[in-house]
Amino acid sequence: MTTWKSIKLPLGDKSYLQDVYVFVFKKDDGFIMLDAGLNTNESFNALLAGLKDLGYELRKLKKLIISHYHLDHCGLAVRLQKLTSAPVYLHENDRKILLFFKEHIEGYPEKVKDFYCSYGVPENIMKNIASELYGYKALLLGPTETVHINDGDIFEIEDGYLRVVHTPGHTPGHISLFYPEKKIFFGADFLLPDEWPHGGIYPHTAGYNPIGDYLKSLEKVKALEPEIIIPSHKEPIYDPVKRIEESILFMKKKIEEIYDILKKKGHLSLAQICDMAFKVYDSSLSYFFLLSVGLGYMRYMIEEGLAEEVRDNKFILFRAK
Ligand SMILES: [Zn+2]
Ligand SMILES: [Zn+2]
Hints:
By secondary structure, the chain is α/β, with parallel strands linked by helices. It is 40% helix and 21% strand.
């Protein structure tokens, strides 16, 4: 019998991803869990039902490991902390982001607006995004009373152990769990079968280089030679090395593409770069994520000496170097 199981939790109508998997590993007379789903009653009830189907009771939760701070992964952690005595493990880089949200939650959507407006994104577009974000405020509050988790940490389970692999890029503190015994890699949002989960830059990660980190994480996981990567969304990846190589290639091509655009067009704003270099978006929120990704690419290119920021009277623009 496998010592791990997954439970599918709903993400509601608003999310394009539809659901998220949490993973349950047998340990002594209880279980360890990776991730906690969205902080909604629907998701909580699905978790209880899923545990029951597997023959577990919630009170037998020994440890809760959170892969990263996104609300579809850490949402229920505070509720579970109150209901059980299980410690919650989270990487310090992402705990700092949750602390930031706690401190700035009231003004956060406004901060987002000002942040991207400073890169020349039109104010009316950012106002729409900010008003959408107000609806998510309550969901942004994740666990901050957590135990630090680091690369190389070990969690014993019934049939061996899981090793923590710090895989930043999607977020600065993103961790995955490697099960060396079976070469299974529980990758959370590290790698998905049909999209590119590199992270972006937001007001709460303003100094971050997500693309640079992500490229390093891809190489790091490739070197572990996992046989299968099980993500938290969608289907398992049965040929992980191929998918990792595709991701690296995609990003390198994108960097070249942006570089060529900048070379040809001269000074461009973030919005102009995103319009020219990325696929069209279908909602305010997906445009918001696109802007963050575009900024992530620009940070990488600046650090690699391929581009630089230029300030005109009002905005920050970019040009090739
Ligand atoms: Zn995520
Ligand atoms: Zn996710």
